[in-house]
Queue: 3 jobs
Job 1
Amino acid sequence: MPTELAYLLEEFAFELNVGKGFSSNTVKAYLSDVSDLQGFMESKSQTEVSDLDLELLRDWLWRASEKGLTKTTLARKSAAVRAFTAWLHKNGKLELDPGLKLRSPKASRTLPKVVSRDAMSGIFDKLEPLATVDNPAAIQDLLMVELLYGSGIRVSELVGLNLEDIDYGRKILRVIGKGNKQRMVPYSDPASEALAVWIRSGRMQFENEVSQNALLISSRGKRVGVRQVYALVASLLSETAVGQAGPHALRHSAATHLLDGGADLRAVQELLGHSSLATTQIYTHVSVDRLKQGYLKAHPRA
């Protein structure tokens, strides 16, 4: 990687982390995309910042599309590079911002996967009998699914929970979402029961000197990671009609079931931590789609 561009990438990373307050996952993805662009520049022997122009950006994005990347990924790569060139222009490294005219394919917005109420009941019917005092791992499995589905939190928010983030009296969690934004999220009565069992008897069987204040810990006492939660949920959902899916499907399901039950759209937006109401509105489309399917199956003149 060119020395100047490598140095600028470090400064850009600082801007994303501190100036923009982006989540660690977003920063990681953006830096990976910009590094990919820089590697492409090197392959063309264009190693100077001044070599960045619209033609080069379009060529790079076209080559990326040739790899069979999804529209969503291409849109993110385009957004990352536009942010980089805008930052370069703002800081006087580029006279003009070539990213202003870079267009990426619009991401196709498919309806999210939603687990049916009956399927969720089946999952809990499977987990609950296993969550006994002599099986702390199963107690924690039940708690993780209860919190993901009952509160609609992201898996990264779940594994980041600490003991002091729980308000037992009001049944509220304090979570840190995207952009390090904090919000308060209620949790259900079943989640409260699972949480009580985990704190009272499950967690102490795993706790050691490295556990510190993490709510969820592995059998070795370390904070539970995203991969562990993903493996659990993916295994459970593989036996449902949803098929291959991860923890985010439980978040989708929570939002959809809330709207199906008559919850206010803005209340769901606040629960999920969406900055834009438009993002939450995708779940209204899911509800309408489910309504249509039910109508077609049930109405005699459908």
Job 2
Amino acid sequence: MENETKTKNKFWKGVLVGSLVTAFAGLIIVGVATGICLIGRTVMANHRRLLQPVAESPTGRKELNMENIEDKIGTLQMLVDEYFLFEENIDTDLMEAGIYKGLLAGLDDPYTVYYTPEEYAALTEETEGVYCGIGVLVSQNISSGTITALRIFRGSPAEEAGMKKGDIIYKVGEIEASTMELDVLVQQEIRGEEGTWVDITVLREGEEIPLQIERRLVEATTVEYQMLEENIGYIEVTQFELVTGKQFAEAIDSLQEQGMEKMIIDLRDNPGGVLDSVVEMAAYILPEDKLDGTIVSTSDKNGQGDRYFSADGEIRFESDLGQRDARYPKEDGHEVDIPIVVLINGNSASASEVLAGALKDYGCAKLVGTTSFGKGIVQSLLELDDGSAIKMTISHYYTPGGVDLHKKGLDPDVEIEQEIPEDLVDAFEIPLDRDNQVQKAIEVLGK
């Protein structure tokens, strides 16, 4: 269990996002107070005076006292102007952004963050699965900020440059990677124009290894599949991009044409991704005559939310708030009625848990492996009227059976930890015939 506990500590930044919400709100303009003496003891006394007790909200929590905050920021600004040594480093735009970032950081929710207009513009590039980059799937530890290479795509620039699964991305250029939000780092520093180069320093077994990697057009193959013995189809889903739903359906169709009688869906180490894709994938397998056809539902702090479900050969969307989603309804009418096993582990998170949870609740699949990560919350992007934005946790999501798995995860029906053969510790991947969890899945299907 020690290895599983260590793995569990990796907090994935693969974000489950439903419909993109756009909200317009005026920003609070923080002015600069004047007339405060810049002598250490006097400044401290004035701060104690400024921080008066604040009113409580109807829920009992304290409300922010904006007047106190404005005065204190003014004091800090004056101290910077008077004493800060490196005056050439003063960037008021950066300082202002830091105020907003710090405000949301105080919520103690790693998924709720502020984006500057520049960061937001980069973030909102469509997640199409085709981009100019280096071809690596990464994750970020929420406690330390450490970024780890989870998967290196075959034939990618990263593989050609020598990057390996498990490498820690230490620096991108001169930027220490752990100091940036993962999505911003990827969009602004790692991806770029085709044919340009990026310098990345990785840590491997305590050694710094510099890599120079060319950015090229990369199409993320998020679904790989093959036919195993006894007509068992094996499908590995590494992440959920916009292309994943189509790739998944094509994999099932191809395997069925080859005579597939049983199926393994491998979601191990899959950090999640686009909600629309996982809804399409679940609908492609599930019948619509159980559990009201529900695939996944959400609920906000007021008990209102959305539901994605199948009915009359369509995937549909409904909202308690009367919101509409132009992407729905979508054609469905497909079902896969064969024995299925879903492989999960402590790094199967978010959208992976939506798919695994739906198949489990419908009685369509057995879960094999170890308990999934347990990210059962939804974030939305809220755009502000100056072009900046916040990504905010807005709701819980629930499996079709009403299970809230946040911070709990999905427990497997058959628990088995992965055992890596000694001669394959440094291998790019473990052959399926030597993967004990895959072999257990085959055994479960045989029963």
Job 3
Amino acid sequence: MGWEVAVFFTFYGLDILHQKKNSKLKVAPLANPAAPVALPNMVGALPGMTLMATKMMEGWMRKAKMPPLPEFIEMAQNLGVKLYACSTTMGVMGIEEKDLIDNCEIAGAAAFLDFAADSSVQMFV
């Protein structure tokens, strides 16, 4: 579409940019309104439910022929999408620059908002 695109990752969204965690992300069914299947919290808290929800989501992604997350990120970067890790959250969560995937940038929320203020669409993850 010819748009300049940037995505700002904060708190647990940083796991997507974390080179050791982004291929091991889990889908939490507990108190997650975006879970693959709506479950009462009591059921979502049972042992094994996170694994089950994760496997269910992985199956849906494979069926839809969606690439694994690391490949998806690489595709986005190859298309020029800029990925920003929140510097403040990195400090809070003990994440260092060396922990992040290649070719992502680090910025505080104010710096990203400066970019976002001039754009038509913004995404915070």
